[in-house]
Each structure stands twice: as structure tokens, then as C-alpha cells.
Design brief:
427 residues, alpha/beta, Aspartate Aminotransferase, domain 1, Aspartate Aminotransferase, domain 2, 16 strands
């Protein structure tokens, strides 16, 4: 009988995968806590939370129970002109904790579409008000998703190369490395002084796909203050940073200036089911609230506001707001900090950086890129040791479920040290 991975090869096209170079997928049969198990019985530590989504562990019983209960009552209904308790309750609970003065929740399907909705809201907001503002400002090397609007506001990279001539123009400002903070702030001021910028969009505090590039809360606050001064809407893409990844519940909780729009996904359901949210202020909503049908936000998805998925998000929120989760996040962050100290000044590392539960290790290389040949070696190295890593080229990182044990963290840390020893011996 053919194995799952053998059958997979005949019928599946995997995301972000050069299928001829990497044709065979590992077949996972079940998950439990921080672990995934393949069809051969091998156990893997999910050190990257399955693309940064899994907060509380795989197959969490509380989330599974709440989804099962909801499926027995109402699995789905059209969300245009209809509503239901899980969607309303989730919106109510999120609005209580989101940064700024969010007033309305718009549901979609994933992070890319949450960003797409945010861009459409921002651009149409000004159009509905009769103001010509059609330009978006973003950070260099940003990543906001794979739909066309999200790609347009993302840095030009391997992700967008095939479509670069089809994307709309965006003004990109320099990423605020320590020696470019003033230049970045100055570039933002220059861009906004023209008066035609509809919105500034940023990944607050950390750019994920760009290589876990981190910047300070002080810089983020400066960005937002400049945008407010120039009457430019602020979109905070908290798809990755939401629900405690950087320490507090949201990265924007670390600053005093609030965004106008917040995008959420990934950890929103604890990584159990796909859901996107675009939260916004009453002022933005009011620009669409009148008798002219042409001012309507004409955007939606067949599964918008799905009740079972909303139930998953509510269950995950129960866990995220519990004291235990706060303690787990703090513990992981402290352990990362201690481990980073042991690698300070290592000759093979260009940088070790951390924010909250996320820690990244940048290896020195002559050819830094997402498609660096070193990436495949790193990937295989950790798989052989029962660890799922997905290196960003020459950058490895740990972004674990909050339930990860000290023993498992020790194993991941020890494997990184082993890697460095092996690379040193081979140099």
C-alpha cells in the first residue's frame, strides 16, 4: 500500500516549494502539544508553530471541544444580511483588548486577505470623503501577504518577482536599522509631506519573512506620530505579532500612538482554523455609512464569519487571556534571553536578535538571500534531530507554541549549538 507521502507526490502542489527540487513531503498523522508525528511514528518539535500560527499546542482539547459543540449547532451561514452569536461575541471580546479605539470588526479568511481588506478600506475611505489620496507607504523588505494588494505593499523579493510589473506603485522607506533610524523617519516625513498618502502600513516591531528583522517600539511610535501629523491612516499588520508573540498581547500595546486599522490572523484561532480580521475605528466605518450604495465596501468571502471558526477563535482567546499563558510567554522570553547571552560574539553569527518569544540567529555568509543554498542544509540538519525549523535563507529562528517544555527548548538550543560546532569544524 502506498504511503501518504507517496500519494501526496502524485496529486498535491505545495506552497513555497520548488516541487522538482523538493518533491517529497513529510506526512503528519497527528499532533499533540508542541509535537507533530509522522506516518513512520517519528516525533518532531514544532519549533516554528507551523508557520507562526500555533499558540497553545496542537489538538488542544479546549479548542477542539468548542469547535465540536458549535458544529453540532450551526456549521455555517451566509454573513451578508445575517449574523450569529460566535461572530458577535468574538468581535465584542476583541474590541475590548485591541490597541487603540477600534470600533468595528471585518471578517475574512487569512492574513493576506485581512491586509487586502485594510488597503481597500484605507483607499476607499479617502475616495468616499472626496479626498484624492491614493498612495501607500511601507517599509523596505516588508511582507504583507500574497494577494496582489498585499504583494504590492511588500518589498520586491522572490515572493513578488514573477508579478513585479503588475503591482501598483508604493513608496518604500528604509528599514530602521540602528544606523538608519533618522534616515527612515526622514524618508517617511518626505513621503507624507506630499499630501497624497492614503496610509502607512507596517509590521510592528518585527518583519517576519524578511528575516526576523527587529526594530524598537520608540521607532514604531515615531512612525505613527508622523503619520498622524500628516493625516495619513495607519495600518498595523499584527498577523504574526498578535496574541503575545512580542510580549504583550499586541505589538502596538508597547507604544502610545494608536493605529487606525489592525490586521489579525495566524494565532487568532490558536492555529487551528483559518480566519482573518481587519479591525478599524468608528471614523473609518462612518465614511462608508450613508445612503449612497457606491460607498459600500464591496468585499467578502463565502465563508466570512464562519461560526465554527469563530468558536475556535473564542476558545483560543480564553487560553490567551489566562494567567498561565502570560506566564508561559514570559518564561519562553526569559529562556531565549539567557540562551542568546551564551552565543554573544560567536564567530559564525552575524547577529542574534530577540523580541518576546521570537529569537533569530543570523549566520555569516557571503551570499545572504532567501534562496541561499545553506537553507536546505539547515532544514535537514534540524529535521534529523526531530525539530521542525524553516530557515529564512541563512537565518534560523525559534517561534514555539507557548506550551513548549523546558526539555524541548533545551533540545532546540543544544541542536543550534551542535550546528555551530559542526560548521566551525567544517570551515
Amino acid at each position: 500500500m502506498a504511503t501518504i507521502k507517496e500519494r501526496d507526490r502524485q496529486v498535491i502542489w505545495h506552497p513555497y516549494t520548488p516541487m522538482k527540487i523538493w518533491p517529497e513531503a513529510i506526512a503528519i498523522t497527528r499532533g499533540e502539544g508542541a509535537y507533530l508525528f509522522d506516518e513512520d511514528g517519528k516525533r518532531y518539535i514544532d519549533a516554528i508553530s507551523s508557520w507562526w500560527t500555533n499558540l497553545h499546542g496542537h489538538a488542544h482539547p479546549h479548542i477542539a471541544q468548542k469547535v465540536s459543540e458549535q458544529l453540532a449547532v450551526l456549521e455555517h451561514c451566509i454573513f451578508a444580511g445575517f449574523t450569529h452569536e460566535p461572530a458577535v461575541q468574538l468581535a465584542e471580546r476583541l474590541l475590548e483588548i485591541l490597541p487603540g479605539e477600534m470600533s468595528k470588526i471585518f471578517y475574512s479568511d487569512n492574513g493576506s486577505t485581512a491586509v487586502e481588506v485594510a488597503l481597500k478600506m484605507a483607499l476607499q475611505y479617502w475616495k468616499n470623503k472626496g479626498v484624492k489620496k491614493t498612495r501607500i507607504v511601507a517599509l523596505e523588505n516588508a511582507y504583507h501577504g500574497d494577494t496582489f494588494g498585499a504583494m504590492s505593499v511588500s518589498g520586491r523579493s522572490v515572493f513578488t518577482e514573477a508579478f513585479k510589473d503588475l503591482l501598483f506603485d508604493v513608496t518604500f522607506i528604509p528599514f530602521p536599522t540602528k544606523d538608519k533610524v533618522a534616515e527612515s523617519i526622514g524618508a517617511l516625513k518626505d513621503a507624507l509631506q506630499k499630501g497624497d498618502a492614503a496610509a502607512l502600513i507596517v509590521e510592528p516591531l518585527i518583519q517576519g519573512s524578511a528575516g526576523m528583522c527587529m526594530y524598537s517600539a520608540e521607532v514604531l511610535d515615531q512612525y505613527f506620530r508622523v503619520a498622524k501629523k500628516h493625516n495619513t491612516l495607519i495600518i498595523a499588520d499584527e498577523v504574526m505579532t498578535g496574541f503575545g508573540r512580542t510580549g504583550p498581547l499586541f505589538a502596538c500595546d508597547q507604544i502610545t500612538t494608536a493605529p487606525d486599522i489592525v490586521c489579525l490572523s495566524k494565532g487568532l484561532t490558536g492555529g487551528s482554523m483559518p480566519l482573518g480580521i481587519t479591525a478599524t475605528t468608528q471614523d473609518i466605518f462612518d465614511a462608508f455609512y450613508n445612503d449612497d450604495r457606491l460607498t459600500t465596501l464591496y468585499h467578502g468571502h463565502s465563508f466570512t464569519g464562519n461560526p465554527a471558526i469563530c468558536a475556535a477563535a473564542l476558545a483560543s482567546l480564553d487560553l490567551s487571556l489566562a494567567e498561565l499563558c502570560t506566564e508561559q510567554r514570559k518564561h519562553i522570553a526569559e529562556r531565549h534571553t539567557r540562551f542568546a547571552a551564551t552565543l554573544a560574539g560567536h564567530p559564525l553569527l552575524a547577529d542574534v536578535r530577540q523580541t518576546g518569544t521570537i529569537i533569530a540567529f543570523e549566520l555569516k555568509t557571503d551570499a545572504p538571500s532567501y534562496n541561499s543554498n545553506i537553507r536546505d542544509m539547515l532544514y535537514r540538519f534540524f529535521l534529523e534531530r526531530g525539530i521542525i525549523m524553516r530557515p529564512l535563507g541563512h537565518i534560523i529562528y525559534i517561534l514555539p507554541p507557548y506550551c513548549i517544555s523546558d526539555a524541548d527548548l533545551d533540545h532546540v538550543y543544544a541542536s543550534i549549538e551542535e550546528l555551530l560546532v559542526q560548521m566551525t569544524e567544517q570551515a
